[in-house]
Amino acid sequence: MKDTIRVTVWNEYRHEKTNEKIAKLYPDGIHGAIANYLKAQPGMEVRTATLDEPEHGLTDEVLNNTDVLTWWGHMAHGEVSDAVVDKVHARVLSGMGLIVLHSAHFSKIFRKLMGTTCNLKWREIGEKERLWVVEPGHPIAAGLGEYIEIEHTEMYGERFDIPQPDTLVFISWFAGGEVFRSGCCFHRGAGKIFYFRPGHETLPIYHHEGVLRVIANAVRWAAPAGGPKPTFGNVKPLEKV
Amino acid sequence: MKDTIRVTVWNEYRHEKTNEKIAKLYPDGIHGAIANYLKAQPGMEVRTATLDEPEHGLTDEVLNNTDVLTWWGHMAHGEVSDAVVDKVHARVLSGMGLIVLHSAHFSKIFRKLMGTTCNLKWREIGEKERLWVVEPGHPIAAGLGEYIEIEHTEMYGERFDIPQPDTLVFISWFAGGEVFRSGCCFHRGAGKIFYFRPGHETLPIYHHEGVLRVIANAVRWAAPAGGPKPTFGNVKPLEKV
Amino acid sequence: MKDTIRVTVWNEYRHEKTNEKIAKLYPDGIHGAIANYLKAQPGMEVRTATLDEPEHGLTDEVLNNTDVLTWWGHMAHGEVSDAVVDKVHARVLSGMGLIVLHSAHFSKIFRKLMGTTCNLKWREIGEKERLWVVEPGHPIAAGLGEYIEIEHTEMYGERFDIPQPDTLVFISWFAGGEVFRSGCCFHRGAGKIFYFRPGHETLPIYHHEGVLRVIANAVRWAAPAGGPKPTFGNVKPLEKV
Amino acid sequence: MKDTIRVTVWNEYRHEKTNEKIAKLYPDGIHGAIANYLKAQPGMEVRTATLDEPEHGLTDEVLNNTDVLTWWGHMAHGEVSDAVVDKVHARVLSGMGLIVLHSAHFSKIFRKLMGTTCNLKWREIGEKERLWVVEPGHPIAAGLGEYIEIEHTEMYGERFDIPQPDTLVFISWFAGGEVFRSGCCFHRGAGKIFYFRPGHETLPIYHHEGVLRVIANAVRWAAPAGGPKPTFGNVKPLEKV
Questions:
Q1: Which stretch of DSSP H or E encloses residue D181?
Q2: Domain tally for chain A?
């Protein structure tokens, strides 16, 4: 592994520009809140990118120099260009880590990587959530207690229409009666993907120490490990046949 | 489970029409060889569909009355219409079984469901393959010995760029020095998918008793089980919050 | 698969003999309640066995003629002889299905098969449980709605110290704030194991239609599929080396 | 994660003392060959322990100060005391990493953790093995090419009677016609386990750069991550019921 992980924090960055309450909660945008936390971590080099920049801020130069990309989107999934989605997809398959946050379950990139609808149940009444760690030996659970509690949150409930995760790290309990697979690890191609449920534009979820710590852990876990670059296509036999 | 499994055997059906040797090997087409075997199984109702029929033979009426679809394609993946692929995709996610055969690893429908390139190594020198059963308790291995041997086959080698299967049933050994995850089970949505490697247009693979038996087993395993139809979207709390 | 599944329903059968309230709830014992339901299923041949019978009712003759064994125990795990546990263990590895119910998470046989402590959190205040189906395509979810609700139950909470299940079918929500992986599928050797959480001696859980249906589904899923009997030890090469 | 990983390299250390050829191949014992390589890695503090030391060199003091234990045994599995096995088992479940090498598939500790026989096929004719990387994004594959080749080795063949690994990293091809799941990751309790096939007492496998690199990678992967210590037993509700 390289010494420094180059992280790009991507954010749709629309809610913050149109809603005063949200702007106040995230004065630097949701990307700013996440990036500021990650910048304080040892060994991370952090930049941000947003939807309304040219190429959504994800030029070839940026993508080729990103080890882990975090993704938050909600109201404008449809405005993300297919060309950029295809590039991000190719980068993940060739080894870039991807951290998919909250409502980005419905982003084009996550759905393309999962192959399923990624649909779920939801409700916005600010109820309580408790994320239980079910795989305590996993590095994404480093430094946590047995659960993370979020006093007021949007609910996401099962059935969450995703492939069975390679490793399930968190299961959420919600006051209203639902459960959710909230922390899901996937290998896809040479890349690693972590879906992490918490996060909302009108709630201070991305100021929550536990949530931020999980994101930082996930960035470390998803960083490229330096394995082989598979080759494909027609090959000669390695043995006499 | 219903008493009868309605199977649709889909085939590209091009090689057989243009190459005399292949036509002789599969006088009823590859679909015919597979369908004839399945028709002799108890509890299966079998029809076929091919690329050059209107809507590739996969009309709404056909798809809505198919419990398990088997898919063989090779030279004309690109000619399968996206509209039909989208319909098949939706049907799998809502419960239809899908058996993906050999070179259909590169079919639009399999790649869309997997979210990865599904690329691999290959070689056509007619070498020997031995498929080892690595999960002997799985119903897809019913009636088999410890391995299936295929005297002359096309080689497919790792890295096979797919998500880790939910269950890995077969691993292939090839004389030329490669290995391959040859029998892979996946849940996607409410549907079950089985990728099965053997099969080639110029070789009598679909006349091989072991190969045909696995396809029949896989059809039974992938048949819809009658579970719940998940609902999605905004929901009221089930508990007082 | 054979036409008839031979099921042995095993029960510790102690609570029912010493506690009047429990005896009234389960006049034929917990095993009786489960066996009566299974007997009404097509294609099942059902017998029972209990701790205080000679060899706990699990003689070689019984075990060798059992396709699927269901196991309930609670207060007397330690009284189950190691010799019988070793025999059951060997039978599971050679293909017999095993359904592990509720407090049998702490049975010798389940712990031996899992290799972990199988420990968990618990509480007996008769709170509400809701078991969400998270893998709707799995045959164990056949005939169910999106969740099973149990009005009054003992709580089991994560961390449940088991290996990651091969397939996770149910996750429970509890009123008191916990979650639990309540329906867990495992392949071990040639056998299939299903752990199912609900069930308690002082509550009518084994009269609950949804719970009983899951047990019957699990019996069908866990029945031996007729795959190969692996051989082990020193072997000659299959190819010229 | 702590800065330094404390590794204990355990070896049966019998073959080397009784067989001149083996002694010449591994003058410091197999443990010496492995330990010497690991000592040269940044951030590893390495000691060794062997069967014939008091408590097999695995005193409480040693175990409590071991982050990752590597285990090689072959002819004397039965001489490892059950008390020590129980202690190692408990340490793994509470977070210590365990690397299980070659013939240690039959060690008491591995079989206890897996819950299965861990049996396999084998043959000693010094044939060729090729270990293919099937999960190139996994950290255990760091720095490797697409495969590792071992010119002369003992063969291990499927069916390998283990639970399905959480992640399968390597599959071996053997000249004699078999395949093997050669690099298998498991979570058990809070601990991580890696089974790695290569290695033999009469062959210079533990002088092979690729093999040693995998062992070093595995040590890093298996090191405790600092997650929560689960608590078990009776608990009060976290919510008003």
A1: strand D179-188
A2: 1
